[in-house]
Amino acid sequence: MSENVYLPPKIWTWDKASGGKFANINRPISGATHDTALPVGEHPFQLYSLATPNGVKVTIMFEELLALGIAEAEYDGWLINIQEGDQFGEGFVSINPNSKIPALLDRSGKEDIRVFESGSILIHLAEKFDAFLPTSGIARTETLNWLMWQMGSAPFLGGGFGHFYAYAPEKFEYPINRYAMEVKRQLDVLDKQLENNEFIAGDEYTIADMAIFPWYGILVKGKLYEAAEFLQVQEYEHVQRWAEQLSQRTGVQRGRVVNKTWGDNEYQLAERHSAADIDNAIS
Ligand SMILES: N[C@@H](CCC(=O)N[C@@H](CS)C(=O)NCC(=O)O)C(=O)O
Question: Which residue puts its alpha carbon closest to atom 12 of ligand 1?
């Protein structure tokens, strides 16, 4: 037992910063803190996002739709800087009361529709364009099974493992052990599924792949939390095969650049308003 044992008080109070990378944006209340409106561009879809794994799921989907030649899927990708608190502006909160990226405004119909939660956005776009989500039967259910698996599992990878391994102000053995165990279990689940299936939900590339790749594909590629050695990600050979296959897709490569303001200079693009913006960023 550690010497610095924390005894929780009777009632929790928000009286001190918790430390760690995201301490400045964490608060125990929801809602807007300032009245900034959102910019609106000319395309039918207005995306407000950032190239974190949750944001990239949606930009991959848009770029895959455009790669299929679906011009109606044109979008403006606006940057929401979560470190600066953009997600607490009144305009953003009005389309996502949960103040998290990604959030989408679909202006393609008679009435504007707000869509939040990356899984909901993927389903919305898949149904709208009849792509990347089988319309019936086992294939559809299996795609939704794995999409929901991702939505439920990734918080253990990001908010659990990633937070305590990479972002917490100190390293604590208990949470790192707990979440490393869970993340390795999740990788093993994926590895077994991908042993007998080309893609996550079977032999078709779907929104389940797009949701899972930015978290687990990037993790096994050694590009998340610098945890490749710690988690021995090379052991998951079927996940590795799938991650490499997806990395080669044009839609995936283009989607990963959008709303990215860190990393290699030539692969950054704060805002996306046309295909040419991405061409210039990756050329
Ligand atoms: N379940 C949500 C999670 C979204 C989420 O956690 N977004 C993070 C960035 S990856 C965020 O906006 N954080 C800002 C904050 O917590 O204030 C989804 O999949 O859309």
Answer: 100
